[in-house]
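Figure 3 (text version): C-alpha cells given as input.
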C-alpha cells in the first residue's frame, strides 16, 4: 500500500485529506477544481462512507494532473459514461476528470458556483441530486433515499418533506447566479 493511501471504503476524512494534499504538495489550485461525487454527502452525514474522491478540473490543475501521470504518479483512463478523460491518482482513490458528464454542463460554471468548505470546492446539492437522478444506479437510489427524496423514505436534513426545487443543468452567465429552469421534486 502507498504511503498515505487509505484503504477503499475509508470513512472519508482520509480521502479528503488526499485531496487537500493535492493542493498543498502537488500544485493543484483550489479555484480550478470541484469535488463532484458523493464526498459532499459524506460531509453532510448522508453517507457513512465514500470509496473515492471525484474531481472535475480545468486549466492549470488539469494540466498538473496530466503531469502527475507523465511522472508515473497516476494513470490516464476514459470514463464509460461520457468519454471524459480521467486521471487516476493514489491507485484510483482520487479521480480527476477534464469535464462533467451531464449534458449541457459547463466546467467553469460548476467550479465557480461550487460550495467552499474548508478551502475546497464541492458540488451543491442541486448538482448532486441531478446526476444521481440521471444515473439512478443502486448506490444513487440509496443516496436519494437517505436524503428523503424517494417515496417511502424519511427525509433527513437539509431537506424537509414537501416540495424541493432541483436546479436543472442550465448555463448561467458568469457572476449571475440566476436559477434558470427548475424541476420540482415532491417528497413524502
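Below: residues designed for each position.
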Amino acid at each position: 500500500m502507498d504511503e498515505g493511501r487509505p484503504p477503499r471504503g475509508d470513512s472519508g476524512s482520509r480521502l479528503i485529506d488526499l485531496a487537500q494534499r493535492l493542493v498543498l504538495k502537488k500544485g493543484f489550485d483550489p479555484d480550478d477544481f470541484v469535488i463532484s461525487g458523493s464526498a459532499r454527502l459524506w460531509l453532510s452525514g448522508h453517507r457513512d462512507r465514500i470509496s473515492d474522491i471525484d474531481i472535475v478540473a480545468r486549466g492549470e490543475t488539469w494540466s498538473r494532473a496530466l503531469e502527475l501521470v507523465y511522472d508515473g504518479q497516476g494513470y490516464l483512463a476514459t470514463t464509460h459514461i461520457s468519454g471524459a478523460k480521467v486521471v487516476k491518482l493514489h491507485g484510483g482513490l482520487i479521480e480527476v476528470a477534464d469535464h462533467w458528464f451531464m449534458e449541457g454542463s459547463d466546467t467553469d460554471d460548476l467550479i465557480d458556483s461550487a460550495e467552499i468548505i474548508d478551502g475546497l470546492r464541492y458540488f451543491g446539492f442541486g448538482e448532486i441530486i441531478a446526476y444521481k437522478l440521471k444515473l439512478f444506479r443502486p448506490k444513487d437510489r440509496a443516496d436519494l433515499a437517505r436524503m428523503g427524496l424517494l417515496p417511502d423514505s424519511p427525509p433527513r436534513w437539509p431537506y424537509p418533506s414537501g416540495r424541493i426545487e432541483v436546479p436543472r443543468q442550465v448555463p448561467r452567465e458568469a457572476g449571475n447566479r440566476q436559477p434558470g429552469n427548475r424541476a420540482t421534486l415532491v417528497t413524502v
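Confidence is low (pLDDT under 50) at residues 1-10, 159-188.
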